[in-house]
Structure formats: C-alpha cells, structure tokens
C-alpha cells in the first residue's frame, strides 16, 4: 500500500495515541511485552512502517524498550505529555526542518564535546557502533535517532534532549526519503551514516568543540543533499558554536 508521507505521519500519530493510552491507562503495565509490528499493523489496519514510527516515538519517550528476542517491553507507565512539531507536508517544510536542526544539533555536538561525562560518551559510542552491523529499517531508524538524542543528552541541557525528541517525526521522515534515493560513492545507507557519525564521535571524544560542530554540520548537510538531491543556498552561517564566535556572512 503506497501511502503518502504526510498521511503516514497522521496515521502514526493515531496509532501512537492508542498505544500511549494502553500504557498510561494501566492496560499494559510495566514489564508487558507488547504485540509485534505485524500484529499491531493488523490490529490497527495500517502498514508496518506506520506502526514502526509510533513505536520509535514511545522508545524516544522512554515508555518502551526493545529487548533482543523479546520484542518491545513497557518500561515506564508514567504519563508523558505529548508534544511534537507540525508534520512535514512539502519540500519547503523539509528544508525548514533541516535549517532548524542545523542551528540546534551543531551547537549540541559542540556542547557535548565540552561537557560529556564518561557514561555519556559510552552511550554515544554504543549508538554509533550499532551502525557497523546489518540493520533492518526499524533498527536503522532507532539507531539514528538514538545517536542524535545521546549527543543531546550529553550536553547536560535537558532542552536539547527534549527538542530532539520532539523532532522525531521530522527526522524519521528524512530517513524514509533517504531510502528512496541512491547513495553516491557506493556503500549502504548505514555505512554512509556510520562514516559521517564517526567524525562527530571522534571530535566529541577528543573534546574538540569546533570539530564536533563542523562534523555535525557536514553530516546534516550531506543528509539533506541525499534527500533533496541538491544543495540549498544559505544566506548566512555561524563559523563556530554559540558563545565562541559571531556569525559571519557567506
């Protein structure tokens, strides 16, 4: 079934709402093994990608977790207010989403390089290393989002983490489109992202804020190009993270 991207996002929100109700209402208490993607898709009469997005949102919120061999398990029945940005409906929205991510995530990477504790770095590295193995579509989305959220958490600023979590639909939307375009230079999508993430990890590990800023910016620019197939001219940019340099004209 070929469902338009914007309609898939709306369906995913509905599935998410139903699943969230089951968790918060006590029907699925902590420790419950929830049905598989296929079972949920059949139950809600939607496709597996629609269910997958709803599950990613629940994982991002900390309501469920994936356990190898056991599927998804409820780990928190605490109600978390649902917040998200408007879904992407056209190319202009997608460009705007990347513009926003470039302002948020580059600074988050720089801050993480300066503030990350050993356990934060371990979480970032663990999320990164998962890209070195074969990944299903579901695992790819989970890993990519987990990597970016781990960096946001490492800043020690909860607003970075909250913002990245709120952007989960916009990030997943880009992942879906990336899969529809052939990658330049060969290699799988996971291998390409692994190489780009590696530069971010090394800069954070080396406490190189400027390097982390630039590596994240390069990764997001490359991601945007893979999705759109063209570069988007910028009228200005900052040469360094906030607090270290003023913006400079291009």
Automatic annotation (TrEMBL):
Domain of life the protein comes from: Bacteria
A Pfam family name for this chain?
A: FCD
Record GO terms (molecular function): DNA binding; DNA-binding transcription factor activity
Q: Where is the HTH gntR-type domain?
A: 9-77
- Keywords of this entry: DNA-binding, Pyruvate, Transcription, Transcription regulation
Q: Which SUPFAM superfamilies match?
A: GntR ligand-binding domain-like, Winged helix' DNA-binding domain
Recorded hits in InterPro entries, A to Z, give:
GntR_C, TF_FadR/GntR_C, Tscrpt_reg_HTH_GntR, WH-like_DNA-bd_sf, WH_DNA-bd_sf
What name does UniProt use for this protein? GntR family transcriptional repressor for pyruvate dehydrogenase complex
């Amino acid at each position: 079934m070929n469902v338009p991207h914007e309609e898939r996002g709306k369906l995913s929100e509905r599935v998410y709402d139903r699943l969230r109700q089951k968790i918060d209402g006590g029907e699925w208490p902590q420790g419950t093994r929830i049905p598989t993607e296929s079972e949920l898709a059949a139950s809600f009469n939607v496709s597996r990608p629609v269910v997958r997005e709803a599950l990613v949102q629940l994982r991002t919120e900390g309501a469920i977790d994936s356990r190898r061999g056991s599927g998804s398990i409820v780990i928190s029945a605490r109600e978390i207010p649902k917040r998200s940005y408007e879904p992407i409906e056209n190319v202009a929205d997608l460009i705007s989403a990347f513009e926003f991510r470039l302002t948020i995530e580059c600074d988050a990477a720089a801050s993480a390089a300066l503030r990350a504790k050993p356990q934060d770095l371990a979480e970032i590295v663990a999320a990164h290393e998962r890209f070195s193995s074969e990944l299903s579509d579901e695992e790819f989305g989970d890993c990519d989002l987990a990597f970016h959220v781990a960096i946001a958490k490492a800043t020690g600023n909860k607003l970075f983490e909250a913002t990245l979590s709120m952007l989960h639909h916009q990030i997943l939307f880009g992942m879906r489109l990336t899969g529809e375009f052939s990658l330049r230079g060969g290699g799988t999508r996971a291998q390409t992202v692994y190489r780009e993430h590696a530069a971010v990890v090394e800069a954070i590990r080396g406490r190189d804020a400027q390097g982390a800023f630039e590596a994240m910016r390069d990764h997001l620019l490359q991601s945007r190009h893979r999705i759109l197939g063209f570069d988007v001219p910028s009228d200005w940019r900052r040469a360094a993270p906030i607090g270290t340099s003023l913006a400079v004209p291009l």
